[in-house]
Amino acid sequence: MALILNIDTATQTAGICLSDDGKALAMLANDAPKEHAAWLHTAVQHLFADTGFRMRELHAVAVTSGPGSYTGLRVGMAAAKGFCYALNIPLITESTLKMMAFATHEQLGGEDLLCPMIDARRMEVFTAIYRPDMTELLPATAMIIDERSFPEWLSSHRIAFFGDGSDKCKPLIKSPNARFVKVGYHTGYLGILSFSRYLQKEFTGLAYSEPVYTKEFYTHTRK
Question: What is the rounded CA–CA span in Å between residue 85 and residue 79?
Answer without folding.
Answer: 10
